[in-house]
Design brief:
Elements lengths: L7 E6 L5 H14 L4 E7 L9 E5 L4 E3 L15 H16 L4 E4 L4 H4 L5 H9 L4 E6 L3 H7 L5 E4 L2 H12 L13 H5 L1
Parallel strand pairs: 1-6, 1-7, 2-5, 5-6
Antiparallel strand pairs: 2-3, 3-4
């Protein structure tokens, strides 16, 4: 079930798309316009990138996401300690207030209910809209995680901005008085 005014949005991307740029520009624009976008935006696309890191919003603090390379293994590994630390910092920032939570990825840890998944539940419980980058090949997993209560966005500024306008101005008269979205009814 999809609800265009749902507080939970998946920015669904395919291999050639760059959700990091879209999320970073979205968060930066919101913060520049007096809103409070809180969360994490990924910088770099792959472990082989020397700059694979994340930026915490709204502080701009950067942190490395992967462990130091092991010369005896192929590939790289997510630094779970860094992810946990980032989650704790984001949680503290959420306590200070937020207009939207931005999560860089629906990755392996989030699919297991770990990583930044508890922040998503917390934000929604506090009526803070959430947007998360979801790879298209894991969208079915995302639907399961969200119990179908999500809006699917194209990986572009127009889709993200249109969603934000709908959820941020709901109380400003876009919905008739007494109208509840499907997500609000089920909450």
């Amino acid at each position: 079930m999809f609800d265009a005014q749902c507080d939970l949005a998946a920015l669904v991307y395919t291999e050639g798309e760059n959700p990091d740029r879209v999320l970073h520009e979205f968060a930066s624009a919101l913060n520049a316009n007096g809103h409070r976008a809180v969360g994490m935006v990924q910088l770099g696309r792959h472990c082989v990138d020397a700059d694979l890191s994340a930026m915490l919003m709204p502080t701009g603090r950067q942190l490395r996401l992967h462990q130091e390379p092991d010369p005896y293994s192929a590939g790289c590994r997510l630094d779970l300690g860094q992810l946990t630390s980032a989650g704790e910092q984001i949680a503290r920032t959420l306590e200070e207030g937020a207009d939207v939570l931005i999560v860089n990825r629906f990755g392996r840890q989030e699919r297991k209910g770990k990583g930044l998944a508890p922040l998503i539940e917390r934000a929604l419980g506090d009526d803070i809209p959430v947007v998360i980058a979801v790879p298209s090949h894991h969208f079915a997993d995302w639907i399961k995680f969200a119990d179908g209560m999500t809006v699917k966005l194209h990986c572009d500024h127009e889709s993200l901005d249109a969603w934000w306008t709908r959820v941020s101005t709901r109380t400003g008269g876009m919905n008739p008085p007494g109208h509840l979205t499907v997500c609000e009814v089920i909450k």
